[in-house]
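Exercise: predict the fold of this chain.
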Amino acid sequence: MNNATDWIDPELIAAGKLLQSRGLVAPDRTRASLSEVRAATDRIGAFLGEGSVPLERERDLMLPGPHGQVPCRLYLPDGAENPPLIIYAHGGGFVQGSLPSWDAMLRELVRQSGVAALSVDYRLSPEHRFPVAFDEMVTMVRLAAREGSGLGIDPTRLAIGGDSAGANLALAAALASRDAGERGLGLMLLIYGCFSTDTESPSWQRFGQGAGLSQTQMRWIWETYLERPDQRNDWRAVPILADLARLPSAHLIVGSLDPLRDDSHLLASRLEQAGVPCELAVYDGLNHGFIRYGRLIGAARRAVGDCAAALRKALVTRRSG
């Protein structure tokens, strides 16, 4: 199938034009200064989140981590007593992203699922390279399991999730949790993650050439995140290298135009081979990064609803006890 036949969701095209008209265009990470890149990400996030109504109970926390305090934001579903919790890592190539930029998407996820969310503002590279962000996510999972009742959630019903780089961290943290003999996780919500260091797969060659997430950018992301080239063989950084048996069930989502599409397909097939229940949903006509575009793109709203349904099914309808 050649590129001419790839259908693009008209709402995605309209959203791109709207952002451009507002001057909300992300600079090239490989060339612009990090402060510029991060500021642009936050401006785009603020625009995408306009009009989002806070939940009745959401609050900022500083939680103890292995490298100092970790800022987090806790979203509790309205009217729920001791709900389950998803520990969530935002995207941004390990170098950008912040709590406010994911507010709108996580509020929707919490409202529709009845599952609380703990959004983790893990330390970013290059100031804090691998394995700092991984260490922090692992610690937040343990903390939720140990002290979750103090946060107002049920520590026996946990999920882990993230988008893009955050999905990489979520899968790696789930592996660490399994290896430590911890049993609290009931679901992995993995949204267009980078699970391997492959930037030459067919989907990379097809969709990784232009604007958005490119092969050049992804190579730069890995160089910026990892301290040394040999860490490309470390499952904590590249979780698809690990033995995937005995992981919690997984709900994967990706867009049909995403250069990371093959990573999701590869992970889904490896999970199935390892006997891990796994669903992979591919959203037609969408590219990398769509999950926060619910205000502008109907298919992104549908994807959040599907993620919420997967969370509800895994954690709410199978209530422990």
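Check your answer against the key: The two ends are 50 Å apart (CA to CA).
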